[in-house]
Amino acid sequence: MDGCLAFLRTLTVVNCPSLTSLSLGIKDLTSLEFLIIMNCEELSLMEGEDNQHLKLSLRMLKIFNLPKLEVLPQWLQGSANTLKHLEIEKCSNFKALPEWLPRLKSLETLQIINCPQLSSLPQGMQGLIALRELKIRACPNLSRKCRQEDWPQIAHVPKIDLGE
Asked: Among 2, 35, 56, 69, which is 20 to 30 Å from 9 by CA?
């Protein structure tokens, strides 16, 4: 299928409990703008780690109920200039936001909901000058840290929701 998906703009993967890999090479999805992945209990998104320098066009990534996800995949850096909306929800083993997250210069909305293992933001969050909305819910350790020592990194964001 090489090249057949070059013009795909939206991909939604939902309710695939046995899916372990997105076997489509991310390198072939250069026009992809909207990626939604939900309820894929065995998927970690870590395949294709050698593709971190790709030029991708993602504008929105929503990840919901991926218990195997621990960190964001390196290939997401390929959308550093286009990604506007990132939502991570109900990922019970999600442990860390990557140190390269502040390089997502177009990021306007970041939502992290019900990721109880996540406890801190990466350094340099103040570099996300396009960020207009930060929502952190049901992440008790992260919410507490954002209210205290991480506050200077996010104080520039106009709309902040650190609800429990």
From this structure: 69
What's the domain range around 105? 10-161
* Phi, psi at 56, each rounded to 5°: -110, 170
**What letter represents residue 33's amino acid?**
E
Q: b/e map of 66-77 (b: 16 or more CB within 10 Å)?
A: bebbeebbbbbb
For the stretch 45-89, pLDDT in tens is 876 555 555 678 899 999 999 999 999 988 888 899 999 999 999
Look up residue 143 and give its amino acid: S
Instruction: Please count the structural domains in the chain.
Output: 1
Query: How long, in residues, is the chain?
Result: 164
Non-local CB neighbours of 10 within 8 Å, separated by 6+ positions = 32, 33, 34, 35
Q: Considering the domain boundaries, does residue 5 fall inside one?
A: no
Residue type, 77: Q
CATH number for position 112? 3.80.10.10
pLDDT in tens, 107-128: 999 999 999 999 999 999 999 9
